[in-house]
Design brief:
Blueprint: H1 9-21, H2 27-35, E1 41-44, H3 52-57, E2 62-66, H4 69-82, E3 88-90, E4 102-107, H5 118-130, E5 132-143, H6 147-153, E6 157-165, E7 168-180, E8 185-194, E9 199-208, H7 212-220, E10 226-231, E11 244-250
Parallel strand pairs: 1-2, 1-4, 2-3, 4-5
Antiparallel strand pairs: 5-11, 6-7, 7-8, 8-9, 10-11
Length: about 250
């Protein structure tokens, strides 16, 4: 299996800060999905709990997992301040790591792009299918590759932000470069520096572009019985100019 992306403690803190300040646009959609599900919910790649803790706060019977231990530690810290009791564990999308069964599995915010080979992508669909009850649904979103954005933004440092971690002020920034034109993968560099400009942490991730045709082929080769795609979170069809592809896959009843 390919090693999947992980986060150091500093990068996990930077990620949490970034998403506390940014409205990703998916919160109300996934919350509606979960609250309208009769049964248990699983969030795959739940990270620092941006969505997962909101599900618990709304009374949803939800579990979660993530590949990054530092992410889960930050989730637990925030859960304690909110007064909710999370059930989370460390695992990746290809293994899931539970024998429980759910009526809804969600994989928000491009997390499926961490799977960079067809074998890993199909393994994840198999594992997520196995985690569902008969008739259960898998819902996930990935961005639509927009090559004008890629041409303008790749190779430049961006998303510079200040955050606090362990009593220190730190600064993070990100740069994206093409990893493989043949495989349609790209490399994200995350750099953390202190107030003196010294490097504190650095991590590099490889992610995959997933055009809709490729996701449909994966769905066709998966155990799921039905699948559909929308362009964004408002239920409209996928058209040119849409930035998000939202996939719904259903297990046979």
């Amino acid at each position: 299996m390919t090693d999947l992306n992980r986060y150091t403690a500093e990068l996990a803190a930077s990620y949490r800060t970034a998403h506390e300040r940014t409205d990703v646009g998916d919160e109300s959609f996934y919350l509606d999905c979960a609250t309208n599900t009769d049964g248990r919910v699983l969030e795959a790649a739940c990270g620092t709990g941006r969505l997962y803790l909101e599900l618990l706060d709304e009374g949803v019977d939800a579990d979660g997992f993530d590949v990054s231990r530092p992410m889960l530690e930050l989730l637990q810290e925030r859960a304690a301040t909110m007064g909710v009791q999370p059930t989370v564990w460390q695992a990746d999308l290809r293994t899931v790591g539970t024998a429980s069964a759910y009526d809804l599995v969600i994989v928000p915010y491009n997390s499926f792009c961490n799977l960079t080979t067809v074998d890993d992508q199909l393994a994840a669909l198999d594992a997520l299918h196995a985690a569902l009850n008969p008739g259960g649904r898998l819902v996930f979103d990935v961005y639509v590759p927009q090559y004008d954005v890629i041409a303008d933004a790749f190779g430049e440092w961006h998303s510079e932000r200040e955050f606090e971690h362990d009593g220190r002020t730190l600064y993070s920034r990100t740069r994206t470069t093409i990893e493989s034109q043949v495989d349609q993968t790209y490399r994200c560099e995350h750099e953390i520096r202190d107030t003196d400009g010294d490097e504190v942490a650095r991590e590099e991730f490889v992610l995959a572009h997933l055009p809709p045709q490729q996701v449909e082929l994966l769905a066709r080769h998966s155990p799921f019985e039905q699948w559909s795609v929308d362009g964004g979170f408002d239920g409209d069809g996928l058209d040119d100019g849409d930035g998000v592809q939202l996939w719904r896959l259903r297990k046979a009843a």
